[in-house]
Amino acid sequence: MENRKSVALVAHDNMKRDLAEWVDWNWEVLLKHHLICTGTTGKMVERTLRDRRGKEFDEEAVDIVLLKSGPLGGDQQLGAMIAEGKVEAVIFFWDPMQAQPHDVDVKALLRLATLYNVPTAINRSTADFLISSPLFGSNYCPVVKDYKSYIERTLNQ
Ligand SMILES: O=C(CO)COP(=O)(O)O
């Protein structure tokens, strides 16, 4: 498919129901893209898509990669993929009401998404705006800031 994107889907436990509803609502669009999920979120996304398609569900039709569970390194794996330019959109329903054991990983992931100018939705309304944007289905390519002067800086040693 033209303009197929690599879309990351992640949710903390208290937000998984929200993401499942959002995936259910947007299943037709999501099936056209390559999905990358942290472990537990990914299982839920697969189940939601399967339930939605019912008997017509074709395992092959879902292009999904499951990383490790977030607290076990999944956020860091996803962050590495962002740094390598392998993620084109992030939908991350993080929990604003509960601290996570891997909060530092969450922060690192969101930092890299910002650094590399990856379209990132951290709540449902923004996810709605993102997926319904004409740019989502286009070949829009976000500009990444040029860090050449930082890379080539002179160190006083
Ligand atoms: O913890 C997460 C994101 O920070 C999500 O991990 P799981 O999808 O494995 O629950």
UniProtKB/TrEMBL annotation:
Domain of life: Bacteria
Presence of the UniProt keyword Lyase in the record: yes
Binding residues for substrate: H12, K16, T38, G39, T40, T41, S69, G70, H102
A molecular function GO annotation: methylglyoxal synthase activity
EC number: 4.2.3.3
Catalytic activity: dihydroxyacetone phosphate = methylglyoxal + phosphate
InterPro entries associated with the record: Methylgl_synth, Methylglyoxal_synth_AS, MGS-like_dom, MGS-like_dom_sf
Active site: D75
Broad EC category: lyase
TM segment ranges: none
Alphabetical keyword list: Lyase
Record-annotated MGS-like domain positions: 1-157
Recorded family membership: Belongs to the methylglyoxal synthase family.
General function of this protein: Catalyzes the formation of methylglyoxal from dihydroxyacetone phosphate.
Protein name, UniProt field: Methylglyoxal synthase
Natural source organism: Alistipes hominis
Lineage start: Bacteria, Pseudomonadati, Bacteroidota, Bacteroidia, Bacteroidales
